[in-house]
Amino acid sequence: ACLSGDGKLVVPMSYSVVWTPSPLKHADRMSVYASNSFFPKSLEIHWMSIMNSCLLVVLLTGFVAAILVRVLRADYQRYNEDEESEMKDAESYGWKLIHGDVFRFPPHKNLLAAFLGNGAQFLALAACILLMALCGMFNVHQRHTMNTAAVVLYALTSGIAGFVSASIYKKIGGERWAWNIVLTASVFSVPFFVVWSVLNSVAWYHRSTQALPFTTIVLLLFVWLLLGFPLVVLGGILGKNVAGPLGAPCRTKNIPREVPVVPLYASAPVQMLVGGFLPFSAISIELHFVLATTWGRESYTLYGILSIVFLILLLVTSTTAMALTYFHLNTEDYRWWWRSFCNVGSIGGFVFAHALYYFFNRSNMHGTLQTAQFLGYTLVVCYCFFLAMGTVGFYCSLFFVRYIFSNCKMD
Predict the structure, then answer these.
(1) How far apart are CA 230 and CA 367, in angstroms?
(2) Which of these, 63, 45, 42, lies nearest to 53 by C-alpha position?
(3) Which residues, at least 6 apart from 166, have a Cβ–Cβ distance to it below 8 Å?
(4) Exposed e or buried b for every residue in 222-238, given b needs 16+ CB within 10 A?
(5) What is the pLDDT of residues 344-400, one digit of tens each?
(6) Are 352 and 382 in contact (CB under 8 A)?
(7) How far is the C-alpha of 24 from the C-alpha of 18, rounded, in Å?
(8) What is the spatial distance between Cα 194 and Cα 262, in angstroms, rounded to a whole number?
């Protein structure tokens, strides 16, 4: 250090760099991060937690499946004995009593079909992104590549939403086809556009680089109008033309059956609490790492583990949905259509609650911009969870209901 002519202290700063040769090729430079640097302090805990979660989920699934098989076998035996002894329905109880109403079509069938179509689209979208990640198509240092792939795949898979929605809409007696296509195309895109517009406006106000320029907004709008929406229309036309009847094994009576008062364990809040918590328990640990990667500075490379967790989530969701549907029908309540969707779709609420815990206790985010972006995009992701897992629960419950009523003697 020395003094300058005007009496100021001048401190020269310097540094040195030593380059060490490495046998690793430039194309394989990310393999080090994939094998050794993913949360190095908690890697063993991460793997042990995932293994524990897999074991717990397998045991839970086997337990629920065994209970259902045993109970259904007892139900079949009881109902068949009642049939042979010519006992009346009034002297019996259980899910067989609602065989004349169990396939009565639900209210708001157009909205239900739109939800199912978008849920099927997000399941296909998630599968495609995981497959691309397993093939090494994403660079952990270029996160925008996955975002770009998600936008393009969302537009390309829009035909799935139209096809599934129109198909189930026809099966349950829908007739307003134009409204069905419009609702299917807008039930996710409109809420997402509203949330994104608010967040982008906040980013513009704070002069953040997170705000998309006008040209990018116009490009995304053209992608949706010229690719996404036409595919929804084409998928809807195809789904309407190829869809057959529902194939219900029971005839629906003209007069609806009176629904008795259900016990507390079969009420909607309790079943949604159970139906959301069990699937969430299968992904809670992995969800923490995904949040740390999305909103932190970590790099996520364990896509194989993420794919296994995704499959486990589907397995637990389907098993839980069928079990809750059985308990619901056993209370002699035939209104299972919306219930089967919402029971396991409630996982979105648990994901949002976990995200709030992460935001307040694990992240260092603060301020209007970061808070708005975190809450806004988390709501969108939770909505996707609601649609996707609700779709899994509905179709598994539909298969389950058709199966049990087709294997039981009817009057």
Answers:
(1) 40
(2) 45
(3) 113, 117, 177, 180, 181, 184, 235, 236, 237, 238, 239, 240, 243
(4) ebbeeebbbbbbebbee
(5) 999 999 999 999 999 998 888 888 999 999 999 999 999 999 999 999 999 999 998
(6) yes
(7) 17
(8) 39
